[in-house]
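HUMAN: Quick job: go over this next protein and say how the chain folds.
***
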Amino acid sequence: MKTHIKFLSSLGIILFLAFGSLAATEISETNLRVDSGKMLFTLIKTMAGTDSKMVGLANQISGNIDMKAKTVDFKMDITLASFSLSGNYKFANDRMHETYLESTKFSVASYKGTIVSYDPATGNAKVKGKMTIHGTTKDNVELEGIVKPSESGSGYLLTSSFKVNLTDYNITVPDIKLAKVSEMVDLKMKLELKSSK
């Protein structure tokens, strides 16, 4: 019986060390850059009392993270070419950019902030800073994410999910007789980070 307990105890320690080391995400680089990035956005449209999801993709994200200074600086192109609804929504995309986002005038959304916390054991990170959309800046915006080693092994993968209220950024929400779009937008970000050396 004692041998059995000793074996289980040893097995538990080995598994903890093995999986604990896999979960750890030590970032040895001081400066990281966004090598590639995507953001999925989801809007809820209500039509005749029925809700449906409208999903889109932003595929031009750039930025830098300075681990020593604990700063983050991201920019996202929100012009029609790189920020659009998926599917057969040509009219909706044109209207979204011309009437609501005014993307010819406000072509970039940005986030600048400081790293509040980062736990290498779990990869959990929290930042706080200024988010600018549609020419309007909101202070003290907190975002949380998870950093893991990238699948290629040559960098890191940062994922984050958060919500944005369009009215906070002076974006008029479509509300016509036939359809209404929610003020809240769900965003899911995925960034590949590499050393900026």
